[in-house]
Specification:
This protein has 488 residues and is of the alpha/beta class. Helices cover 30% and strands 22% of the residues. The radius of gyration is 23 Å and the shape is globular.
Length: 488
């Protein structure tokens, strides 16, 4: 079969969730899931570095229809992979995944209201790429916006001189033995604060080398209130209660950070001081230049990073790299760090729609020129949606809403005999601004490649789950920006 109602791109957390939503509300729709890798799981299968875990609680990172039943609210990578696979099996979508199928291009034809999707087989057994095509009425891209084939590594002076191992977490060697080794981890984000305590368990010593600090917040790995809810109430109801508790708390902290940044900064400092004591130099190592939630806060379950620092198996150095040496890293302060292994936890590269080349009615489309409609569709591009989660809350909260909206949209078009829809901006007062609203380096590096958001609805991304529930679940699908079409 080479034609489907819906093509879902990506078999990660978002893509499997999208397929389940489609089966639950649109069981008569034909669909397939195209996955460029050879395994299910997306990000949670790709990243295999020590300690890999969620940076959000699983009661909000999990699907709204599939309760997270494990005690650990901050889950490790293998547990999340198991959850995704279990969901795929439970809702009978696993058999719809076509592996090693990378979508390279998609061409829309308004006369037939169809996409022609070009696919490259990615199997290593193919000596030359095999190309195939299929058609569909609707594309739902669940690729996220991270580039999978490589991460971001700065151009470190003299790195070729280093005699030890130099590793990026995205390409972690499976059999790496770091026991009794001196480790330097470059970076201060979520990956770095995860790696440090995990590697410090067996390494000789782990040093986190950061140019500038990040806000780090300790959180219990087990949500005790969630466990009580599970004893008191039915499983789904208990899950929903915990989910709403956490959503409300996340929204409260975010709004508090935006309105009273100095007070939140002081609170975070106090919490760090409680962990590290009077003798630790918090001003140097845990006092970021930016306000809370200008970048994501880094969660550490049960304070594992702080524990490793207090124990002495890990340390933080806040400095700049002058150059690499044969033995390690020379710092601008004059100090030197000797290392057997250097890990460059320096961030990711972003890639919108997985780098797919789009054409609409024989005209190439540049995604960066488009406006994002309701955080999921693009102006001037018909019958295509993107699953993109929140920057200030769990990814899946928004993706669940987006999938439900796509299902509503498909049902509405069927009911009224529409073949396709397209968002168009006709309001000259709409001002364009950056798609993602965090001041992170990986976002700044890719800002020119991404679509834009507007300064008002339906083009603005509010990053507000409660508001999006009203916008995407409750309000009518019809508005002035979204036009529906019938073919002859």
């Amino acid at each position: 079969m080479n034609h489907f109602d819906v093509v879902i791109i990506g078999a990660g957390l978002s893509g499997i969730g999208a397929a389940c939503h489609l089966k639950l509300s649109q069981p008569n729709k034909t669909y397939t899931i195209l996955e460029s890798r050879d395994r299910m799981g997306g990000t949670w299968d790709l990243f295999r570095y020590p300690g890999i875990r969620s940076d959000s609680d699983m009661h909000t990172l999990g699907y709204n229809f599939k309760p997270w039943l494990k005690a650990q609210a901050i889950a490790d990578g293998p547990a999340i992979r198991d959850y995704i696979r279990e969901t795929a099996d439970q809702y009978d979508v696993a058999s719809s995944v076509q592996y090693q199928r990378k979508v390279t291009a998609a061409s829309w034809d308004s006369a037939t209201a169809k996409w022609t999707v070009t696919i490259e087989h990615t199997s290593s057994e193919n000596t030359s790429p095999t190309i195939e095509t299929l058609t569909c009425h609707f594309i739902y891209s669940c690729t996220g916006y991270y580039r999978y084939d490589k991460g971001y590594t700065p151009d470190f002076p003299g790195v070729e001189q280093f005699k030890g191992q130099f590793i990026h977490p995205q390409l972690w060697p499976e059999e790496l033995d770091y026991s009794d080794k001196r480790i330097v981890i470059i970076g201060s984000g979520a990956t770095a604060v995860t790696l440090v305590p995990a590697m410090a368990k067996t390494a000789k010593h782990v040093t986190m080398l950061q140019r500038s600090p990040t806000y780090v917040v300790a959180r219990p790995a087990v949500d005790s209130l969630s466990q009580k809810f599970r004893r008191w109430f039915p499983e789904q109801f208990a899950y929903d209660l915990t989910r709403w508790k956490n959503v409300t708390m996340q929204a409260f902290i975010f709004q508090l950070s935006r309105r009273f940044p100095d007070k939140v900064r002081a609170l975070l400092r106090k919490m760090t001081h409680q962990w590290m004591g009077d003798d630790y130099d918090i001003d140097t190592h845990f006092n970021p230049r930016y306000n809370p939630w200008d970048q994501r806060l880094c969660l550490v379950p049960d304070g594992d990073l702080f524990r490793a620092l207090r124990k002495g198996t890990a340390s933080i150095v806040t400095d700049h790299i002058e150059h690499f040496t044969e033995q390690g890293i020379q710092l601008k302060s004059g100090a030197a760090l000797d290392a057997d292994i250097v890990v460059s936890a320096t961030g990711l590269e972003l890639l919108i729609l997985g780098g797919i080349q789009l054409t609409v009615d024989s005209q190439p489309v540049k995604i960066a020129d488009s406006l994002v409609y309701k955080g999921m569709m693009f102006s001037g591009i018909p019958n295509l949606a993107l699953a993109a989660g929140y920057t200030n809350a769990s990814w899946t909260l928004k993706c669940d809403l987006t999938s439900q909206y796509v299902c509503r949209l498909l049902a509405y078009m069927d009911k009224h005999n529409y073949k396709y829809c397209m968002a168009t901006n006709s309001d000259p007062s709409v001002q364009r601004t950056q798609f993602l609203d965090l001041a992170s380096g990986y976002i700044d590096r890719a800002v020119d490649q991404f679509p834009k958001q507007g300064n008002k609805a339906p083009w603005r991304l509010y990053q507000n789950y409660l508001l999006d529930i009203i916008t995407l679940r409750v309000r009518s699908l019809r508005d002035r920006a979204l036009t529906f079409y019938r073919t002859e």
